[in-house]
Amino acid sequence: AQSVTQLGSHVSVSEGALVLLRCNYSSSVPPYLFWYVQYPNQGLQLLLKYTTGATLVKGINGFEAEFKKSETSFHLTKPSAHMSDAAEYFCAVSEVDFGNEKLTFGTGTRLTIIP
Amino acid sequence: DTEVTQTPKHLVMGMTNKKSLKCEQHMGHRAMYWYKQKAKKPPELMFVYSYEKLSINESVPSRFSPECPNSSLLNLHLHALQPEDSALYLCASSQVWTSDSPLHFGNGTRLTVT
């Protein structure tokens, strides 16, 4: 069974500072991992995904994440926060389970940017 | 702009009403999904359609009835809802129903049941 844990339901960073949102997963098979962002009154938008290959994944809006199998982590980072990054961020894991592929979301991290 | 369009954006309905939520995508995706999202919570999967066939029904009450008329359209028919059904209902699509196929979400329908 798969699961994902996001450490910190709220994270605040100053504009221009490093953004680090933490995600740890549990999966019985090699996982596929995703980060989604949700702005107020909108649906979710894919930031980036890891399936196979390079463990450092670059996404939209300057975000990237690194898959670390030994730490079962997939933390999201951005070198310099911008006011427009304020949103809810969801980490998600998916397993290959033919006929029952499901995405499991973490509980989310609300990112606040301090001017 | 989202490529998955949901209507209406907002809906207020009484517990005896019947209403429908609509979702449309023109990306040629063959999998479509309904999710329910309560405030400050992650989305919860309700239904998955793959190639217009219902593939997953996550033990959702029968007062929610999905319909997939064709590969571009997905409806959610609502009847005799309860106040606790008030939530944001999100439609999503993906190229196919596989574990590595990312979801494209609409902006949702904000449903209030009075």
Could you outline the blueprint of secondary structure elements for this entry?
The complex is a heterodimer of chains A (115) and B (114).
Chain A: E1 3-7, E2 10-14, E3 19-26, E4 32-38, E5 44-50, E6 56-58, E7 64-68, E8 73-78, E9 87-94, E10 103-105, E11 109-114
Parallel strand pairs in A: 2-11
Antiparallel strand pairs in A: 1-3, 3-8, 4-5, 4-9, 6-7, 7-8, 9-10, 9-11
Chain B: E1 4-7, E2 10-13, E3 18-25, E4 31-37, E5 44-50, E6 53-57, E7 64-70, E8 73-79, E9 87-94, E10 104-105, E11 109-113
Parallel strand pairs in B: 2-11
Antiparallel strand pairs in B: 1-3, 3-8, 4-5, 4-9, 5-6, 7-8, 9-10, 9-11
Provide the descriptors you would attach to this structure in a database record.
heterodimer, A: about 120 residues, mainly beta, six-stranded mixed beta sheet, about 0% helix, B: about 110 residues, four-stranded antiparallel beta sheet, 11 strands, globular
Characterise this structure.
- The complex is a heterodimer of chains A (115) and B (114).
- Chain A has 115 residues and is mainly beta.
- Helix content of chain A is 0%, strand content 55%.
- In chain A, the strands form 2 sheets. In chain A, strands 2, 4, 5, 9, 10 and 11 form a 6-stranded mixed sheet that branches. A 5-stranded antiparallel sheet of chain A has the order 1-3-8-7-6, with no helix packed on it.
- Chain A is globular, with a radius of gyration of 14 Å.
- Chain B has 114 residues and is mainly β.
- Helix content of chain B is 0%, strand content 56%.
- In chain B, the strands form 2 sheets. In chain B, strands 2, 4, 5, 6, 9, 10 and 11 form a 7-stranded mixed sheet that branches. Chain B has a 4-stranded antiparallel sheet with strand order 1-3-8-7, with no helix packed on it.
- The N and C termini of chain B lie far apart (31 Å).
- At the A-B interface, strand 4 and strand 5 of A face strand 10 of B.
